[in-house]
Structures are given as C-alpha cells and as structure tokens.
Amino acid sequence: MRWSTAYIPTLRHDPADAEAANHRLLVRAGFIRQLMAGSYSLLPLGMKVVTKIEAIIRQEMNRIGGQEFLLPVVHPSEPWKRTGRYDDVEGILIKFRDRRGADLLLAMTHEEIFTVLAAEMRSYRDLPQLWYHLQTKFRDEPRPKAGLLRVREFTMKDSYSFDIDQAGLDRQFDNHFGAYSRIFSRFGLPVIPVEASSGSMGGSDSIEFTVPSPAGEDDVVVCPTGDYAANVERAVSRLDPVADQQVLDAVEDLPTPGIRTIAALAEAFDFAAGPHQIKTLVYMVDGDPTLVLLRGDHELMVQKLVDGLGTAKIRPAEEAEIRPLLGAGPGSLGAVGVDGISVVADPALEGRTGMVTGANRDDHHLRGVDVVRDIAVDRWLDLRTVQVGEPCLRCGMPLEVVRVIEVGHIFKLGAFYSEPLEATVLDEAGVERAILMGSYGIGVGRSMAAVVESHHDDKGIAWPVAVAPYEVVVSMVKIDDEPSAAVADDLYRELTAAGIDVILDDRDLRPGVKFTDAELVGFPFRVTVGPRGVAAGEVELTERATGETVTLAIDGAPGAVAERVESLR
C-alpha cells in the first residue's frame, strides 16, 4: 500500500470527549470514528488490526479443535424466555417486535442459539464438540465510555463446548485456558487470569483474563507472589482472629439516641468497635426480604450475595419496606429474635460473642449478642469485600488491588442452558442426559483497545508486530529525488515479496510530518530512505517501541528488516 492513496485521516489534536488512551489515539491516528455513543466505524487501519486479531483467534481456536459457525444476530425470544434470560435483569438486552408482532431481540451473546443447534445431537457418540463464531453483539449499555472498552455494538469471538461428562468439560475449559493464554501473549497483552463470578451467565467455575490498566473498570485482588488472583467479586483473604468482648448471660438493651452508623456507635462506646458490631442490611431477594449480616467493619460485595443465593433478582430494601417488617429504620436494625425472615451471614461472624447490633427499635441497640445463641442464621455465605493489605489466604502476604481491563472470560456452564432447552443425548447405557456446556468469550474491539492502552506513549501508539496494521513503513525523505525514490520503491517491493506487511510513505510532505504520523499510527518499524543516506549506500531502521535506530546497507536492508520483523511476530 502507498500512503498517498491510502485513507489514513490522522488528526493533530485529541477528540474533545476522549479520556482513555485508546479513544484518543485510535481516533487521532485514523483507525476509528464515532457514529454515536457506544458505536464506532472501523476505518481501513482499524480493519487491518481487527483482521489480524481475528486471524490469531481463529488459529488458536482451530488448534484446540474448534469449528467455525456464523449465527444470526436477530433472535426469537422463545429460547431466551426458556432459560430465564429474557427478563434481562441488567437492562441491556435490546428487544423489539417485527411486523407480525413476534418478540425478537438483538444478540448480546449466543448461548441459547448454539444450544438450540446442539439439541439436534442425539448420542454421546456425537460428543465432544467445540463450536465458535466471530459475530456482532448488541448491549444497551447505560454509559458507553472509554472508546472501544465499553460500547453498545461490538464483535466477539464466542465459543461453546459440548460434552457428556464433567471430565470432558474440564478438558475443554483447560484447553481454552491454554488457547487464551497464547492468544493474548501473541497480542502482546500482559494478562492476569483471575477467578471470577459467573454472573448472569450461570454455571460454576469461571476465569477472567485481565490486563492491568488505569482505563479499566474492574478491580482484581492479587498476591504479590503471583500465587493468587481473583476479581473483587470472588476474592477471599485471611482474617486475623478477633478477641471477643465480655460474654453476657443474655443480651442487654443499650440506649443509643441519635446513633445511626457503625462509626458513631464505635465512637460512643469503647466496646463497640467495628469488629465487635454486627452490620444488618435488608435486601429483597426474588421479592422476599432477607437479612444480610456482616462484621461492622466489613463491606458487602453484592455479587457474592447474588452468586451465593443463585439469583440476580436482588435489590436493597427501601425504608418503607423495612420499617413495617422490623419496626425500625436503618441504623437500628438487627437479627436477634427475628422469626420468619431469611438470615444470611458472613463467616466472619460465625461463633462470635459479645457483639453489638441493632435492637429493631429506633435509638436502641443490643450488646452481649452471642451469634449462635441469639441469631437463627439460615445460610453462611462469604459476603465481604476484600481490602488492600489483608493477608493472602495461601501465603499470608499483603494483598494488592489492581485496576484492570477484562479482555476474555471462560465459563463452565454445566447444564444451565441445555436442561431448559432440552439439549440431551443418550449415554452408553441408553439413558438420556443433559449435555454439559462451556462458554468462552473474547472481545475483538476490546482487545484492540487493550493493546493500545498497554502499548502507547506521548507520541502515539506502538503496536506489537503481530497485530500492527502494517509492520513496516518505508518513509521517503524526498519524493522528487530519483535515486532515493528508486531505493525506496525497490525496498517496498522486496519486503512485500518477503511476506512483510509494508506501507510506502510517498506523500509530498516534510519528513518531520511523515515521522510524526508514523509514530502516531504506531508502525513497529520505520525505514527511512533519504538522498544523503542513499549516496552513502545506507538506509536507517527505527524500532517504534524502543526508539532505537540502526544503519543498514542498502543491499542487505530487505533481509535485515524481514529478519527483525519475523523475530517479533
């Protein structure tokens, strides 16, 4: 490709509304243009990067036995209703009706429709299977932002495994873990695999592949030794033991006029420090009230409650619902003596005595609470949010919290979709069994954005070779100097013949402008061809990532450049 005929609309200034690096640089360097909030057009350079990303994904998916499909974007509502996901608790599913009045939706993912296809299989002999596609998804994000990191329309590689037993599902999950590790390594992304919540996807085990970045929206808890990493929604830590306060024969009433917070209670009474209080929250779970208990100095991680109870239909109760139920408002609530209401408690409270909690009377608390004696706990669930500096459960080192971008997620779905959609096969004994499934996703545009977030500087993007729009730019210093123009043209043709993806910058512009554009766009290597160098029998090779420049003899330049490129592919 010659730059003079290419469409690369670079800009001198950042777009006014761009904060994330990928948004600023992909727009400025001519890769994307925004159509509306959360919706972007890919320009030719963007298409080249995406094509290379997708090629790497296809190679690694095919390597583990994947077979490529292409499923529709518009879905009938019926399969989604059968799995329960049509209710769309997140509010991001785009629904509409056709002219016949049929309920339809735009795919935000494809579990249901791949499962409908899998329901055609009849025997265990048809398994295992691994199917995938690269297809458009739509999610009505309430706050699209950060360029390609949070959008409404995007391309995802989603794959689905189908097995007769848990051992088969485990193998497919492990195979995907390996494939994803190779994919992101080839992208040049420093991923951290972390334990994660399955959320609305359902199923059991899941692992997120995350990239450290201040532009991310997720936090992960990591041990500095590298032996533990988990999303904050799943993270656990070791708690130091707490000595209980005085044990009383029965709870005692404690007047607390005007006290409504954990901190105020601790300040007023030396025996009521946070670790010695029971925090009582009221949530509506599938429409019914549930008391959620934590240690006073701990914060609830709502996703842990969702995962533990197995429903996403959870919200905080309003005061108008709480007062008739318990007889008091927030700040004076407790679970002592409560009957007929489900109680869920964090294990940090298990066996604790001498605790303080609300008395379910405004301006009153109870002291001397023995959790075993005084509170009927229905379920013990890990509910608390892990904090920076708490000891790692495995080695005791202080944990760190890192802001990350999620670029991939793999799930063990089990029979979450196959049972309601009747995707079953006969096993060796002729018994009908639900197919066990896995689901595995990679965001294509998000991966491109994450590469930019990880590989940029104040001059622009610095693409890794494997996903660069062009691997080499040959920059002509003077297009009207015949000897150097001939060398540049020969070098361009020889590199192209050697399988190098190269662009020739033959624009009639000042060299400084060309070099600035090349650095902004982020080509991994620049070969500079000018009259002075050609007269000396030389060209210059500059590596974008390091800024290192070396001089090459013209005769050996094509081979030397090709060798450098090949070494980094």
Quick tags:
569 residues; alpha+beta; BirA Bifunctional Protein, domain 2; YbaK protein; Rossmann fold; 9-stranded mixed β-sheet; elongated
Q: How would you explain this protein's 3D organization?
A:
The protein contains 14 helices and 31 strands. It has 569 residues and is an alpha+beta fold. It folds into 3 domains: 49-219 and 401-453, BirA Bifunctional Protein, domain 2 (2-Layer Sandwich); 252-380, Alpha-Beta Complex (YbaK protein), CATH 3.90.960.10; 470-568, 3-Layer(aba) Sandwich (Rossmann fold), CATH 3.40.50.800. Strands 3, 7, 8, 9, 10, 11, 12, 21 and 24 form a 9-stranded mixed β-sheet that branches. Strands 16-14-15-17-20 form a 5-stranded mixed β-sheet, with no helix packed on it. Strands 28-27-29-30-31 form a 5-stranded mixed β-sheet, with helices on both faces. The model has no long low-confidence stretch (mean pLDDT 95).
In short:
The chain has 569 residues and is an alpha+beta fold. Strand 11 and strand 12 form a beta hairpin.
How many strands, what sense, and barrel or not for the largest sheet?
A: 9 strands, mixed
Under the CATH scheme, which class of the largest domain? Alpha Beta
User: What overall geometry do the principal axes of the alpha carbons give?
Assistant: elongated
How many helical elements? 14
What oligomeric arrangement do these chains adopt? single chain
Considering the protein shown, what is the CATH homologous superfamily of the largest domain?
Answer: Bira Bifunctional Protein, Domain 2
Helix content: 25-40%
**Architecture of the largest domain, CATH level 2?**
2-Layer Sandwich
Radius of gyration: 30 Å
